[in-house]
Amino acid sequence: xxxxxxxxxxxxxxxxxxxxxxxxxxxxxxxxxxxxxxxxxxxxxxxxxxxxxxxxxxxxxxxxxxxxxxxxxxxxxxxxxxxxxxxxxxxxxxxxxxxxxxxxxxxxxxxxxxxxxxxxxxxxxxxxxxxxxxxxxxxxxxxxxxxxxxxxxxxxxxxxxxxxxxxxxxxxxxxxxxxxxxxxxxxxxxxxxxxxxxxxxxxxxxxxxxxxxxxxxxxxxxxxxxxxxxxxxxxxxxxxxxxxxxxxxxxxxxxxxxxxxxxxxxxxxxxxxxxxxxxxxxxxxxxxxxxxxxxxxxxxxxxxxxxxxxxxxxxxxxxxxxxxxxxxxxxxxxxxxxxxxxxxxxxxxxxxxxxxxxxxxxxxxxxxxxxxxxxxxxxxxxxxxxxxxxxxxxxxxxxxxxxxxxxxxxxxxxxxxxxx
Length: 420
Known about the structure:
Elements: E1 6-11, H1 19-29, E2 33-38, H2 48-55, E3 59-60, H3 66-71, H4 74-79, E4 83-89, H5 91-98, H6 105-112, E5 117-121, H7 125-129, H8 131-142, E6 146-148, E7 151-154, E8 160-164, H9 168-179, E9 185-186, E10 192-194, E11 207-212, E12 217-218, E13 224-225, H10 232-243, E14 247-252, E15 264-267, H11 271-281, E16 286-289, E17 296-298, E18 318-320, H12 324-329, E19 338-345, H13 349-360, E20 364-369, E21 385-386, E22 388-392, E23 395-398, E24 402-403, H14 404-419
């Protein structure tokens, strides 16, 4: 019975330690018991009182505590658990585990345990990508440790990339699966857990090309035609694809957000520049056209700044921009296996997306309503959340409102399933 199982949670000292509180709540709500051990550094982010209140049990932290050792020694702590979970697992904690170091209560019980261990790494993206960390993680996997995450997204340090702690719900899913005897699984929302170095990420070996952001179509050297796209959704998709093992080329219009880590970025301004960059990036396995490409450009941009004092208002003759999505989908040779477009609509979202799917010849459309959202002009543009519909020839999936990184993770999971 799951209700008879006990989790020993080791909380490492990173900014993500506060999520351990939510994780404990979810664990207890699922019917499992949880007891927490904190590293000294974890106490800089959460308190033993906070953890104790959500676990309903005493929190342990001192290796040389006469009281704690008498009540529940470090050997007994690990023996009393059915599963040991380390969340967040910092780079320092992973290094100690991989090399068998035991200099505090947490690392001592981890070395002494004979139970299965699940770790959820969380750290700066460059620390996660460092060869030493990658080497330590692979050694832990080879030793039978299961790893869940990290995922991609914005970090407390202001950077964007892979290194965020997997969501508590995803960690709970891994816990429940391991208690039921599953040793390798694909978790929801793109948090990929692998029990060994032989467990491939779902898009490993694939090349994914993503377009993101707006395009700027010059009127003169000062002014341009543009739209409200921030690039947050497209960049999140590129990061999620990279986290799933793909080689990613991100063709980005002008944005004010950081580049995703581990992604090759090509920066462009106009629709024609974006089309040329996409053509250079092909061939690929998956093309995702998330950019808000301007439909029109000024046929002849002025060489100098247009001055209102110079005379009557100048007419702006418009020319149609190239259709990048239709061009990729309609290739007679070298067409990507999957071509996915986006539809930003302000009314009749799904019908317009279904028509666009057929008109462009792509395999799926991610549609959303970008109309007014409360007091925010431009709706979801620049916002943290999104509500989308995945439209294919087989039907329509309407997803609940979620963060843009969660949308990206879920889309990448669906792409992996579609590729088979």
